[in-house]
Design brief:
The protein has 261 residues and is of the alpha/beta class. It is 39% helix and 15% strand. It has one domain: Rossmann fold, CATH 3.40.50.720. Strands 3-2-1-4-5-6-7 form a 7-stranded parallel β-sheet, sandwiched between helices. Strand 5, helix 5 and strand 6 form a beta-alpha-beta unit. Helix 3 packs parallel to helix 4 and helix 4 packs parallel to helix 5. The longest helix has 26 residues. The radius of gyration is 17 Å and the shape is globular. The termini are far apart. 44% of the residues are buried.
Length: 261
Amino acid sequence: MHETHARMRAQVCIVTGAASGIGRAIARRLAREGAHVVLADIASEPIEGGTPTLEQITREGGSADFVSTDVGSTAQVDALVAQTVARHGRLDVLVNNACIRHARPLLELDDADWQRLIDVNLGGAMRCSRAAVRQMIRQAPVDEVRGRIVNISSQHGIIAAPGDLGYGVTKAGIAYMTRQVAADYAAQQIVCNAVAPGKIQTGQGGRALDPVVMDRAIRRTPWPRLGRPEDVAEAVLFLASREARFITGAELMVDGGWTAA
């Protein structure tokens, strides 16, 4: 069982894209600190393989439940938040992590794939934030805050992702959305921040293991290793916790110094 002084004790958190990779690490980290975590994803099986997140959190003594959710659907997103509040009484933290990639340069990116990237990555964060803020502004504040949103942006919303236009554009949009929501809803005591990962090794295959991509990441990252999902999870935990009570509208780089070099 979790200790009573856990940093997220009794907090209700939704993590989108929680089945795999970074989302999985975030969900497990929040649960280890005493949060009840609602795992929102289109499938429960991790892309990289292994034990499903719900089972893993339960094994570790945490509290979670899984809600099948496509963040591209307004109806499913609204139902996710409504179900969370019906079961647990409130929503303290939303982590917008769900995203897809379709790595193409401009001249190879067709309308349908572009629209899907925008709809899932950027539209998903908007839909989830809208549903969450709608709920949060009705809640009583706890330590000055009614609710927190942590968006997962990317260094590739700041610098180019070679040959991958759509992904970077959506992540740049998420960074802007973070600042806008923070400014618009500060008076209602809603906190909104972002974490921007660099090259994170999640155990997934495909482009993530492309030798050209890996070589560039290793050369460009000043720190003597690449990132791990747990590195991102620790940053999310901080921004989701009461320790970050006067931070809003910020984008925290977790990239081993890539964008600083």
